[in-house]
């Protein structure tokens, strides 16, 4: 996962709490992504940012917001966490939206 | 219809055998195809990508693509216990947009026993 960091690595929340997952890169890549991975469901795209200052919804955006304030960082915010958001969250990045994606180490989130 | 389909497995092969992992996709306009390996509790790691019909070899790994049949496969020769992992097939498609989107299959769990 050289070049991509995610914080925190683990988090436990109570229903209704909010939190922000952080992703930072030092690879100077344009495109960044947030996925969630659930058992039996595979990787599903939540939001992505093709370039700095732009964001778009993916397959499962409900309950999440994102922010791409600069080229290095892409954050994912849960405003009011729900048990259905218990998952492993991966940040990924690529040079462009048609290029190979590289994944960060992940954040394991549990919502009680 | 799901974008990308894989047999969930588990696939179990003895050490030294050839493991064959298969994937089909629904969008004929798909352009690029990727295989990721994911160890338990870890993040997906790129193994190979392929863009053109035919075979692409990298060490013990061979990716095969048949766009007419909308089929992509990964062969692992001389399988080792360290190859035991979940293998994810991913397909890049743009549906006419300027932006590409990567769609993942649910993964095939491979076990290589000594």
Kindly name the structural category of chain B: mainly beta
Oligomer: heterodimer
**Count of DSSP strands of chain A:** 11
Strand and helix order of chain A:
EEEEEEEEEEE
| Helix percentage of chain A | under 10%
Low-confidence stretches of chain A: none
Estimate the strand proportion of chain A: over 45%
Helix content of chain B: under 10%
Rg result of chain B: 14 Å
Biggest β-sheet strands, sense, barrel of chain B: 6 strands, mixed
General description of the model:
The complex is a heterodimer of chains A (112) and B (114). Chain A is mostly beta strands and 112 residues long. Helices cover 0% and strands 50% of the residues of chain A. In chain A, strands 2, 4, 5, 6, 9, 10 and 11 form a seven-stranded mixed sheet that branches. Chain A has a four-stranded antiparallel sheet with strand order 1-3-8-7, with no helix packed on it. In chain A, a hairpin with a 7-residue loop joins β9 (87-94) and β10 (102-103). The termini of chain A are far apart. The mean pLDDT of chain A is 93. By secondary structure, chain B is mostly beta strands. Helix content of chain B is 0%, strand content 55%. In chain B, the strands form two sheets. In chain B, strands 2, 4, 5, 9, 10 and 11 form a six-stranded mixed sheet that branches. Chain B has a five-stranded antiparallel sheet with strand order 1-3-8-7-6, with no helix packed on it. The radius of gyration of chain B is 14 Å and the shape is globular. The chains are: A mainly beta (112), B mainly beta (114). The interface between A and B is medium-sized, with 24 and 24 residues.
């Amino acid at each position: 996962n050289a070049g991509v960091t995610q914080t925190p690595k683990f988090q436990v929340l109570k229903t209704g709490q909010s939190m922000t997952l952080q992703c930072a890169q030092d690879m100077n890549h344009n495109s960044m992504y947030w996925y969630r991975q659930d058992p039996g469901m595979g990787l599903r795209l939540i939001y992505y940012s093709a370039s700095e200052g732009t964001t778009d919804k993916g397959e499962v955006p409900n309950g999440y917001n994102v922010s791409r304030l600069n080229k290095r960082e892409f954050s994912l915010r849960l405003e009011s966490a729900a048990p259905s958001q218990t998952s492993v969250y991966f940040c990924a990045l690529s040079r462009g939206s048609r290029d190979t994606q590289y994944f960060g180490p992940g954040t394991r989130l549990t919502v009680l | 219809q799901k974008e990308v389909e894989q047999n969930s497995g588990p696939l179990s092969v003895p050490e030294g055998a050839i493991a064959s992992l298969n994937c089909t996709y629904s969008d004929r306009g798909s352009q690029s195809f990727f295989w990721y390996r994911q160890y338990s509790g870890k993040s997906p790691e790129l193994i190979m990508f392929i863009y053109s019909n035919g075979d692409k070899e990298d060490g013990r790994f061979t990716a095969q693509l048949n766009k007419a049949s909308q089929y992509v496969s990964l062969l692992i020769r001389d399988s080792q216990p360290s190859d035991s992992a979940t293998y994810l097939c991913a397909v890049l498609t743009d549906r006419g947009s300027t932006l590409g989107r990567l769609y993942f299959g649910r993964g095939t769990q491979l076990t290589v026993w000594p």
